[in-house]
Specification:
The protein folds into three domains: about 80 residues, Dodecin subunit-like (2-Layer Sandwich); about 150 residues, Rossmann fold, CATH 3.40.50; about 80 residues, Alpha-Beta Plaits. The chain is about 35% helix and about 25% strand. By secondary structure, the chain is α/β, with parallel strands linked by helices.
């Protein structure tokens, strides 16, 4: 019995070390290949729509024509002439002859057309040359332009929020919009390559100024505007209701909203183009009202010094607090009759700018370190001048005192300080 049980056991051959090492290397290579394929899949594919070139020409879209003639060619020419006249009337152009009007047109954009043997039905766009039509329409629109605004169009459909991860009609509507005559300086990303990973719907919900500065610096923008399109379909191929919301800034502040409807999927493109024009009107109105201004917390080039009037109020408050502490400890007589009331003495301090290095493993650490340094007594401001996520970042600190005094103040607030010739390195 003992011999039979021994023979019935499966034979286990020990693996040699070279075989084990080879298997481990092969497994690591397979995992690396899968990881690289996943990353490549996130940035490759059908992504990105290049925006049209911004032009100051007068662009009139959505002109509907329905004409008949002896032949299809004559019907099309007649439709184009009619569209030119309708577009000219739409922009309140003065009365001119057909030949003069023909000389002002630089392009005819076919948005949609159907051609029959003797009938032409189309929706066209007419572009009038700004230089030639300026004598009839006047000069270009006046008024100041906005700072460069990074455009982040959000599409919400079927419970999913999307921006540049995949080509979508809302992205295309903004790419085809010509902002040449707008007062808003749009910075329109194409959404190709790594931009689809950087510009996502999740970014619009972040409040960290550090991350926003990194993104805005890459696109040369001063602030961000977020037009949101929430598209709801009654059923596939049926009516569509789209609610649009205009937001702006790193805190996603609300400006305005409106609702448009489309009878079918074929009309969605025209509705989105109409919404883009209405969004531009909303942002231009906000600019005129002084709402659409760059957030000062995003400006890394601004002077970190506090406004003089505000700084004086801060100094007076600190002087009053010091007086109350002196009275509490008995160092000062609280009796107002003993001495004439005196205004708190405020001595102006010379504000100097110093370089401070600090470890920055993540964005939360950067924000926390900046907040702690700004809370140190005597510090007038602190802004990052160089960011290195996962390494060592640099900030410039404005302080009303010497470098030695700043180092001592930081030590008093729990920092480990290493002092150099004209710079400090801090850590917790």
């Amino acid at each position: 019995m003992m011999r039979s049980s021994i023979l019935s056991r499966p034979v286990q051959w020990p693996l040699s070390r070279p075989v084990v090492r080879l298997a481990t290397v092969l497994a690591l290579l397979v995992a690396l290949a899968i990881g690289l394929a996943a990353v490549w899949a996130q940035v490759a594919g059908d992504r990105g729509i290049a925006p049209v070139v911004s032009s100051s020409d007068v662009d009139v879209t959505g002109i509907e024509v329905d004409v008949t003639a002896a032949t299809a060619e004559e019907a099309r020419e007649k439709g184009w002439r009619q569209a030119q006249r309708l577009a000219w009337n739409k922009i309140d152009g003065p009365a001119i002859s057909d030949s003069q009007l023909e000389s002002l047109v630089s392009a005819v954009v076919i948005e949609q057309e159907r051609i029959g043997p003797r009938r032409y039905i189309a929706r066209l766009g007419i572009i009038f040359d700004r230089i030639r039509s300026g004598q009839y329409l006047g000069n270009a629109r006046g008024g100041r332009r906005s700072a460069p605004m990074l455009l982040m169009p959000v599409t919400i459909s079927g419970g999913t929020a999307m921006m540049y991860e995949k080509r979508n009609p809302w992205q295309r509507a903004w790419a085809e919009f010509n902002p040449g005559n707008s007062r808003i300086d749009y910075v329109r990303p194409a959404g190709a390559g790594g931009e689809s990973l950087l510009l996502t719907y999740g970014q619009t919900g972040r409040r960290s100024r550090t991350w926003w500065r990194v993104i805005l610096d890459q696109f040369g923008a001063a602030d961000v505007i977020v037009p949101v399109a929430n598209i709801k379909r009654e059923w596939p191929g049926g009516p569509i209701t789209a609610k649009f919301t205009a937001r702006y800034g790193p805190d996603s502040r609300y400006l305005d909203s409106f609702t448009l409807t489309a009878e079918s999927e074929a009309q969605l493109s025209a509705v989105l183009s109409q919404a883009v024009v209405q969004f531009n009107t909303i942002y231009e109105r906000a600019l005129a009202e002084g709402k659409l201004r760059p957030d000062p917390t995003l400006d890394i080039t601004a002077s970190p010094e506090v406004d003089p009037a505000l700084q004086r109020l801060i100094d007076i408050g600190r002087a009053i607090q010091a007086r109350e502490e002196a009275i509490a400890t008995g160092a000062l007589d609280p009796n107002p009759a003993a001495a004439a009331p005196q205004q708190p003495s405020v001595q102006a301090a010379t504000v100097s700018s110093y370089v401070v290095q600090f470890a920055s493993p993540d964005a939360a650490t950067i924000d926390g370190t900046l907040a702690s340094v700004r809370g140190v007594g005597g510090v007038r401001g602190a802004v990052t001048s160089s960011l290195a996520i996962g390494g060592t970042s640099v900030m410039r600190v404005s302080y009303g005192g010497t470098l030695d005094e700043l180092a001592q103040a930081l030590r008093s607030n729990g920092f480990n300080v290493q002092q150099g010739s004209n710079a400090l390195a801090i850590s917790r």
